[in-house]
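Write out the bound-state structure for adenosine-5'-diphosphate.
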Amino acid sequence: MGNDHVASIIVDVATEGTDKAFDYLVPKELSPEIEIGCRVKVPFGPRKIMGYVVGFPEKPATRRLKPILDVMDIAPPLTPELVKLARWMSQAYLCPLITVLHAMVPAVLKGKYQRILRLHPDFAMKKLFVEAEEELVRLLQKNREVTLNRALSLKGVDRSLIREMVDEGLLVMEERVKDRTTRKRRIWIGPNRSVDALRQSAKTLPKSAARQKEALLFFAKTGKEVSQPELLSQLGISKPTVDRLVEKGLLYREEREEYRDPFAGHSFEKTVPLPLTSEQEKAFQTILGPLREYRHETILLHGVTGSGKTEIYLQAITEVLNTGRQAIVLVPEISLTPQMVKRFKGRFGEKVAVLHSALSDGERYDEWRKIRSGEVEVAIGARSAIFAPFPHLGLVIIDEEHESSYKQEEQPRYHAREVARWRCVEHDAVLVMGTATPALESYYSAQLGRYRWAKLTERVQGRPFPQVDVVDMRNELRSGNRSIFSQPLKKALENCVDQGEQAVLFLNRRGFSTFVLCRECGESIQCPHCDIALTYHRVNQTLRCHYCGYACGVPTQCPSCSSKYIRYFGTGTQRVEEELARLMPGLRVIRMDVDTTRRKGAHERLLTAFGEGKADVLLGTQMIAKGLDFPKVTLVGVIAADTMLNLPDFRAAERTFQLLTQVGGRAGRHQKPGRVVIQSYTPSHYSIEMASNFNADAFYQQECKLRKQQRYPPFYRLFTLLFSHPDRVALMQAGTRSAKMLSSRLPKGGELLGPVPAPVPRIKDRYRIQIMIKYDHHMDEPTILIDALRQLKTSFKDPDLRIGMDREGVTLPIDGDG
Ligand code: ADP
Ligand code: ZN
Ligand code: ZN
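---
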């Protein structure tokens, strides 16, 4: 391990210049606690800052090292494996190591924390040898708990003494972090004296203090603490009564963070493995092989919606747990629904931790702690759950692996699929990527033989695919129908409701803009700080910018021509809802979009209501496209299929295909046959046509051909550099200079495009331009280019300039196809 008196530390200063480890001395008394992955406090210039221990150098850089001041955690939040992963990510995604390390630990660890000491619940006064020990125990008996620093201030008490006492089971040390978001606190009242002492005190109370007496006898009987509200209501006493008893020291009052269990109150019905269909069995065996041999393999589980992929995941996890290893399940944020959680909790019960972004920071931390301490063996969560600090990872499952939310759009801009692959190689673990519509990259890798295919072509119990009709909206216009709804969709909807069945209407949020338009001059009203139209919010009659948060009242006249003829378009879903009310009065509609699901739990409530048949139609955005399983849904309508095709994104066709295939899967999941109606202005586009024919292979072939032609991933590697600056001229200069510098470092056959304005050319008063770099994916990592990119940020002295880098298709060292 080298010289264990010196540690290399990555300090918490996120500037390029400090992206290297600094050496610090490990003081003797901290030495047992300093491990790779732990957080420490160190002097840095005039300040004291936080850092992560990342190694123990053989030869420290200099002799005159400063000492580490403190260790911040009881157990290191990161394992050596995660520290190694962080190094790889920092290289691969060109971002500072500290940013990656931060991304791996729960957010609360960045906030204020305290270490708390308490007596062990089973503490029994035994003979204590040292005076300092007795002193500490007395302090704890008086105060119930004290901070570590308070304890250390006692004479003769030092860290090794405390450590000893913890090891001997006399004390408990606990980290307490402040949960800044939703701090759920509760006040507890409990007996501060023995049962006999309480009885004794009750006797001595004057007659006038009957209430106090009652409270004391209550505690003398139960001997247990109770929450203040409960105490007050149970005994019918008032708070001042309790206050008095607390003042006398007979009772204690303590405010504590409530134990946060996001699924408290849910009961999960135990489920047992289902006998697999023969298709499922085959796919399962493909996973089982490498799993049992402790051999890394990536398996693309390509199964149509409803083919029973989740049951395969569950059974594979059972297998992993039986070998004493752990499993991570990644699901897109949007489909991390209670329904999904229920399936995992139903099979594995308490062994599951759920990492959900709707959790408060504190709740997330609680779940994470269960993983770190080995209390759970399965972690299920969105993207960042890939960093679950399991020591013996056996299996990673990525459900809906094609989902764009697996890519983080801020630093570190990693893709969970690539990180998962790295971890699985490191652990000789199996990676299963399940989807009905693989990402093109994954499809291509499977075709090359880099991934194993496992295909599920049938729905469980042979349920038929729905009938899909594409309606040409241009024809509707020509025949005079200017409504959002085509005749065929309207008829289908009426039919569906007449039969007492349910429909799902899907609208792509990004397509249906929600702006205010002047009918005289045709201008939409723009954000004064961003080059983007303001969004109209009908509920509170405001215009808002979705990029910077700017909000204003709705104007009565056009800001550019002063005309009074202004037209408001409600949010896409609101508009559709209004139109539905007009077309089919009495129709019961549940609308699900960002506006109706903002409150915690709203998502679930709306879905439950729909599941209970309280509405005929579920109308919503992306969030209803996947994962839902309602037996009574027989119709799925897509309001506008091509809105996404117009986005400036080389994945536009792929995303359209995936989305249409996914929504189609929502119809006819059970006994009743399903029907899908897709409305489109470009019905002959290959993504729409092939999705409606369920012809995945044809789509992927076509798309591969185009990507190759247009030099996009997976055939080309792609860097996007985004420059932003409040001054347009300075920005352009920086962009041009960078382009020139980078052009000379391009690998052979590489290509540099730009600088050009970014898709949104100005956000928050900062102008934005971008540069794109492409090169052949067969190329070895072009070191000269990568070095140039790394240096780019430091080569400008302008503090107003920001440069972001985004990378598509990181080469993994294990990719063997050359
Ligand atoms: P997917 O994840 O591929 O969309 P699911 O796992 O949700 O598919 O399965 C669809 C439905 O079929 C679920 O209701 C599930 O309980 C059921 N199912 C899955 N496998 C089996 C099986 N072997 N036997 C009976 N029902 C099954
Ligand atoms: Zn704005
Ligand atoms: Zn106008």
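---
The CA atoms of residues 648 and 759 lie 7 Å apart.
The pocket of zinc ion (ligand 2) is lined by residues 527, 529-530, 545, 547-548, 550 (CB under 6 Å).
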